[in-house]
Specification:
With 94 residues, this protein is mainly α. It has 2 helices and no strands.
Length: 94
Amino acid sequence: MPSTVYCIHWLCAKAVQDHWEEEEELLTCKFQWVVNYFQYRAKTWKEIYTNNRSAGNHGAACYVARQQVVYEWLGEQGELIWQGMNQTNVTFND
């Protein structure tokens, strides 16, 4: 029969492990939310661009086109970073 001290230590270690697993899940979700937000904003700017372009607002259309490119780039960079972080065979340097 394990001692009470051993059980308490095991429960504390289990709580820490559960905490870090939850933290990893939250960070994964937050990262995906950020990428989704950038993609959503790029889509929104594209719609605004179409409206301004058809209305003949060329100055506004230029600004909006730049915003669209920025958010598309941010979304692409987020996806590339995400792919780089999710390698199955991670090696550690000693």
